[in-house]
Amino acid sequence: MSLSERPTSLRHVLATLGEPLVEVVVAPHGLGVPVSDVVILDPEDPLEAGEGDLVLVIGARGRAAAPAIRAAGRGGAAAVAVKGSGGAEVAADAGVALLTVGVEARWEQVESLARGVVEAARAGGEAASGEVLGDLFALAQTIATLTGGLVSIEDTASRVLAYSRAGDEVDELRRLSILGREGPERYLALLREWGVYQRLRAGEGIVRIDERPELGIRRRIAAGIHAGAQPLGTIWVQEGAQPLTEQAELALLGASRALAPQLIRARTLPSPELRLREDLLASLLEGKLDAESVADDIGADPSRPAQVLAFALSRAENRQLRRAELVHLIAVHTAAYRRSALVSVIGGRVYALLPDLPEHSDAAVLALAKEIVGAARRHLEVPVRAALGGVVPRLSDAVASRGDADRVLATMARGHWDSDVASLADVRAEVLLSEVLAYLGDQPRIRDPRLTSLVEHDAEHGGILVPAVLAWLDAFGDVRVAASALNIHPNTVRYRVRRAAEVSEVDFGDPAQRILTQLQLRL
């Protein structure tokens, strides 16, 4: 197969589209399957699909797309994209990957993006095409419209981050920069010699570069992108067949200011391939994706034990940049422990999946969590809590391990554990109690109405009976211990407990009623 005919992979298409545009539901043959074309299929048309097709089913949702999914499987399609839920079992039986498309997404947008990746791969550009379709490219095109030129955006290492669509009179410098994804050294040397980079990094302002026909350089203007005094990159505007607009320099100055937050944000985001792995892990831990579909892509054996660690910054430190730094720190430490470890962020918490665990790994994982928390404190100067979910026998149970870790973090946040690191075994009693209380809180039907009346009566008469009853129950009926906890006389405790029994008509001498009282009053 020639380079120009090389197909891309489903993994690469997904890395470009990403969530929330599309999500993987099932991938029986993994995400490495080749995608050679993008086709649109309406169930009212003949149900045909070819080998390697990415089939967009536009006329049916959910289970109604089952015939199209089966047809795609028979034809050897790489994947089927539908809107709505359902169809996972049909796709698995048909041996074809199933993707769900966001409800708000337009089919023409999905087709355009996917086809762009496929066509870039045919032209030999898969290695870079996953980065071609982000916000920076849209901004580059906007700048090109305002300036009338050909725009490219580079980082401080002269790597091309984004560029506008090609036009007439592309000069050699731009052509080589885009093809190589970075400025060619012989041209960079000239720009340094002319003092261009020195002026760009010195501060805000427009730098003009005259045309040099003998060097293959057309006239261009440039502006540095800064965050305060720190350079972040450069915008270049090359003049094409037509002169730049009268407002070109003003538009470029505004663009350089508008782009600073974008480049700061870009520094905290992972590459498309890494982002896809993080999305797959998040879907696995949220129970949206089965382990067999992602095992190959995350490099894990689905039949081996696994464990999830959860990390949480304090509320005051829970900012995007700090969290991104924590992700990197956790990724480095966990990868050193298990090569196939994966890290992702869900709901502000950072999760690390440790697959393929050896036997008796508890002590090593606990030491790893403590090491990460300590490193975060030393290097990032942020307080971090770490929770260890239980070890589960197979990768498909990782969602349960994540649930354990979340429960442990919730318990730690309530102040029931002094250390920054805890496992489910450490706080099992507190976790169980909190879950029982949560269930009781959600089920008013099973609560004892007599205790509800006691709480209401006590709230209207000084709020002294319920605390006394709880202290007495916590002290197993020892009035002296209860009195010491409340800093009152033992006889006062006896009176208040007796008065609470009279008001509620609950028999505190009955063990079952004592347990119910203790639980319900804790609400």
Structure explained in plain terms:
- This protein is α+β, with helices and mostly antiparallel strands and 523 residues long.
- Helices cover 47% and strands 17% of the residues.
- It contains 21 helices and 17 strands.
- Helix 2 (66-74) links the parallel strand 5 (53-61) and strand 6 (79-83).
- Mean pLDDT is 80; it is low at 125-134.
Provide tags for this entry.
523 residues, alpha+beta, five-stranded mixed beta sheet, five-stranded antiparallel beta sheet
Short précis:
With 523 residues, this protein is of the alpha+beta class. It has helices spanning 10-17, 66-74, 88-94, 107-122, 126-129, 135-147, 172-180, 185-193, 196-202, 248-267, 272-285, 291-298, 320-337, 362-380, 398-413, 428-442, 449-460, 465-474, 479-486, 490-504, 511-521, and strands spanning 8-9, 22-26, 34-35, 37-41, 53-61, 79-83, 97-101, 150-155, 160-163, 206-209, 220-227, 230-238, 307-313, 342-346, 349-354, 384-388, 421-423. 47% of the residues lie in helices and 17% in strands.
How is the secondary structure organized here?
Blueprint: E1 8-9, H1 10-17, E2 22-26, E3 34-35, E4 37-41, E5 53-61, H2 66-74, E6 79-83, H3 88-94, E7 97-101, H4 107-122, H5 126-129, H6 135-147, E8 150-155, E9 160-163, H7 172-180, H8 185-193, H9 196-202, E10 206-209, E11 220-227, E12 230-238, H10 248-267, H11 272-285, H12 291-298, E13 307-313, H13 320-337, E14 342-346, E15 349-354, H14 362-380, E16 384-388, H15 398-413, E17 421-423, H16 428-442, H17 449-460, H18 465-474, H19 479-486, H20 490-504, H21 511-521
Parallel strand pairs: 4-5, 5-6, 6-7, 16-17
Antiparallel strand pairs: 1-3, 2-7, 8-9, 8-12, 10-11, 11-12, 13-15, 13-16, 14-15
Helix pairs in contact: 1-4, 1-11, 2-3, 6-10, 11-12, 13-14, 15-16, 18-19, 18-20, 18-21, 19-20
